[in-house]
């Protein structure tokens, strides 16, 4: 009779997680009865895997203390998940190492897999295509990321060496609240205790991070991702734009997300539906203005440009070009 290899391996995975597993628990997890569990244990023992039986009220099975399993044991779903994760990470900029490191890691996993499974995964990788080109990679140094993550977990201040967008270098102290990935880039957000202001830094611009003595308490209800998006929307660029748009916040956010614009929603009048369309104050900063007229047109909502005048001129020119094209036979 052929042995149910899949369930035997599933039993081994349960025992790998540590502790004593009762027969009842193992039977429930595997969908079999207690006698079958014991037979699966015998299969593992036949493979020289030291499974110990523990007697008593809370007895069951466990792996022998100190036993080290082979370094990599993946089923089909797990192996595919790991390799697809490496591919997706390379294309979206979420890997924290060089592209070469991702390729060598995938090659090592490929060599450790059974040949049958490796061939099937090779077929997936060869057949896989993407509709978008790889994103711009701005990967942080692994040591920097690990040091900052450890400081976030243990609420320790850090000292960082940072290179700003204009090339200026500085050394900063930061109380790091969280690490956020956005649009293929990594950010750390926190507070600069020396000036008492919230700050957000790109990890790929940090050349060194050192943990400092002491500790801190992050603000209650903190949302690091929202802090990063708000910080990006308020970043210093050449143009400061102020608009009033008639609609709802949801409608405006379809074209002007939180990372691009800040929205000041007026307090609802008593007895009115908060989702009712109304005039909403919108502010954003941009290095260029030529992309804004098409975005405002795509909103298809009434709007008023408060500043700058240059944007008003660009919107009028865009409308004239659009009208002229629409009238052509």
Model description:
The chain is α+β, with helices and mostly antiparallel strands. It is 40% helix and 23% strand. Helix 2 (23-30) crosses helix 3 (34-46) and helix 4 (76-92) runs antiparallel to helix 5. The chain starts with a helix and ends with a helix. The model has no long low-confidence stretch (mean pLDDT 85).
Essential attributes:
single chain, 329 residues, alpha+beta, five-stranded antiparallel sheet, four-stranded antiparallel sheet, 11 strands, 23% strand
Low-confidence stretches: none
Strand order of the largest sheet: 6-5-4-3-7
Kindly report the average pLDDT value.
Answer: 85
Q: SS-based structural class?
A: alpha+beta
End-to-end separation in angstroms reads: 78 Å
H/I helix tally:
11
What share of the residues does DSSP label as strand, in percent? 15-25%
Largest sheet: 5 strands, antiparallel
Overall geometry comes to elongated
Can you give the helix content as a percent range?
Answer: 40-55%
Order of helices and strands: HHHEEHHHHEEEEEHEHEEHEH
Q: Please report the total strand number as a whole number.
A: 11
Q: What does the radius of gyration come to?
A: 28 Å
